Amino acid sequence: MGRVEGKVVVITGAARGQGRSHAVRLAEEGADIIAIDLCENIDIAEYPMGTAEDLEETARLVEKTGRRVVTRQVDVRDRAALETALAEGVAELGRIDVVVPNAGILPIGAGRPVTAFTETVDINLGGVLNTVHAAMPHTTERFSVIVIGSVTGLLPSPLDTTPAGPGFAGYRFAKKTLVNYVDSLAVQLAPSGSRVNAVHPTNVDTDMLFNDAVYRSFRPDLEAPTREDAEHGFHTIQPMPIAYVDTSDVTNAVVFLASDESRYVTGTHLKVDGGALAQKTL
């Protein structure tokens, strides 16, 4: 306990899933939290987003640890709104030590309009840049940025994304571009002692994975595939005997990169993927 004692952490997509997991665990380790989420559905995603009630529950769980929390409902595509929300959070909590731009969508499936690509890029790439850049004026001298990427972004090109549709193509483009962003920003910030790293998970046990659109993408041979049907496909991604990782597995990596244990770790791409990338690149 106490691995990030006294730090202030910004987390987007904090209402549920990975974002909530990161917020609660970091609070357990001593951090105060600025928790941000849209709390509205995004039509192109075709699965429900977190709600205002979900964000309130995240706040309740953080407060239960004895730490402070500020919540704001903000669209990460809106830089001005983010700047306002972060300024308000800093007015209450004092500063920002760690930034975890976690918010993202995955509108997977063929036959979708090109807006599935553009909206995914706006959120999964633009939202990360907006969050990091809006936070930087409030950061301490030696701060840590932890980008939530995906093993998809590390896969070698070319990769035919046509069967998974424009939404998946946008998802992969955003995650691949973030790899270069992490590398470049890490070099720019290194002289100040600040750090930028990424965590790249395989499939994670969240609503982004467990929805009908993903099930159909993994089992196009079935008219109405279930979660159990799709999990057979999930297993093929990793050589380890798992269908997906838990949110806590990703959070463990986030806590390490947020803590001073990793004070000289920067520009790193930490895979939490059950060997998925190693298997794909053989």
From TrEMBL:
Transmembrane segments: none annotated. It comes from the Bacteria. InterPro entries: NAD(P)-bd_dom_sf, SDR_fam, SDR_subfam_1. Pfam families: adh_short_C2 (PF13561). Keywords: NAD, Oxidoreductase, Plasmid. The keyword DNA repair does not apply. Belongs to the short-chain dehydrogenases/reductases (SDR) family. NCBIfam families: PRK12826.1-3, SDR_subfam_1. This is Mycofactocin-coupled SDR family oxidoreductase. It comes from Streptomyces yangpuensis.
